[in-house]
Amino acid sequence: MDFTLSKIHEQTRELVRAFAQKDLAPGAQTRDEDEHFDRSLFDKMANLGITGIPYPEKYGGGELDHLANVIAIEEISKVDASVGSDLSIHSALASWVISEFATDAQKERYLTPLAEGQWLAAFSLTEANAGSDTASLRTTAVHDGNSYVLNGTKVFTSNGGVADLYIVFAKTDPAKGRDGISAFIIEKDMKGLTTGVPERKMGIRAHTVSELILDECRIPCDNILGQEGQGLSIAMRALESGRLGMSAQALGIAQAAYNHARNYAQTRIQFGNPLSSLQSIQFKLAEMAVKLETARLLVYQAAWRQSRGLPFALQSAMAKTYVPTVAMEIANEAIQIHGGYGFIRDFQVERLLRDAKITQIYTGTVEMQKVEIARAILGL
């Protein structure tokens, strides 16, 4: 087994890290305070080829692999987890759905501007009464001539209100329950599509999340993704990839928190010595380092399998269970090492803890991942 990253993976890391330090770091704290989504940052990522890393060159992508993509999400999330969310939803979730389930014509029309970063994508599945219980969604899509007419309200749509394209799930045959759900591609300017006021959130505050309101939204029949009734299976496959992107985001947050904690411990002098001279602090840092390395191996293994077309649902679920939990633990310990300063918003560890929490929730809660893991290992 060879755990050495290839030259192209290292170059991807260096490219993204340089961008994050130069373009993201200076304004990250202010964007968080102001809850401001800055589209120009996504445009800069597009110019660097970051928005379409794993997709074919013929569709405007970098034709690398999913490991390179999670490395990019990880590096960005070290500096600004809000922008990490923007990219993860766009490249690891919504664009991946298009690449896997769209027709050639749909890929030409939609994957190309997504991979090139001309368009920003969103994924809209959750409803007020249908979170983990996806089959209970109430949004409907009625076949009417050459169109589908969609009605309903989605909640917690990441990139909602700023995206150019939405992957939306609706019931085309409510009588069939889980088998009556279909997936659709909706452009932002299609009549009947509006978005609500952005949610005010605890973390990733510069990443936009909003309601998606469909009121007699008429779209061409050609905009169905896959076949009627295939929507739930598409959503579940999509979340396999999406939760891997979120795990990479959590990994970046965890790494940043560890870096801040280690650096602070080495420079903060108490009782005439740095904090790092205390065995209690050394043990904290050692435990954080072990958890961090384990988390990275889980994420990279899942991405390696995805890149080779191997089943990766179980590994993705394991990563999504473990890595966000580790991110919360490491961020919390980083605050503890900082003492009172860790509770002050001028220090980044405070923001990292707030940002880490959502990674335990979206694209499938930690609890739901444990259900999936149990089903897989018990053959249920």
From TrEMBL:
Gene3D superfamilies for the chain: Acyl-CoA dehydrogenase/oxidase, N-terminal domain, Butyryl-CoA Dehydrogenase, subunit A, domain 2, Butyryl-CoA Dehydrogenase, subunit A, domain 3
Domain Acyl-CoA dehydrogenase/oxidase C-terminal stretches: 229-378
Residue ranges the record marks as coiled coil: none
Catalytic activity: a 2,3-saturated acyl-CoA + A = a 2,3-dehydroacyl-CoA + AH2
Pfam families linked: Acyl-CoA_dh_1 (PF00441), Acyl-CoA_dh_M (PF02770), Acyl-CoA_dh_N (PF02771)
Residue ranges of domain Acyl-CoA oxidase/dehydrogenase middle in the record: 122-217
PROSITE patterns listed in its UniProt record: ACYL_COA_DH_2
Protein keywords: FAD, Flavoprotein, Oxidoreductase
Domain of life: Bacteria
Family matches, as InterPro entries: Acyl-CoA_DH_CS, Acyl-CoA_Oxase/DH_mid-dom, Acyl-CoA_Oxase/DH_mid-dom_sf, AcylCo_DH-like_C, AcylCo_DH/oxidase_C, AcylCoA_DH/ox_N, AcylCoA_DH/ox_N_sf, AcylCoA_DH/oxidase_NM_dom_sf
A single GO molecular function term of this UniProt record: flavin adenine dinucleotide binding
Cofactor(s), names only, from the UniProt record: FAD
Domain Acyl-CoA dehydrogenase/oxidase N-terminal: 9-118
Family according to the record: Belongs to the acyl-CoA dehydrogenase family.
PANTHER family in the record: ACYL-COA DEHYDROGENASE (PTHR43884), ISOVALERYL-COA DEHYDROGENASE, MITOCHONDRIAL-RELATED (PTHR43884:SF12)
Protein name listed in UniProt: Acyl-CoA dehydrogenase
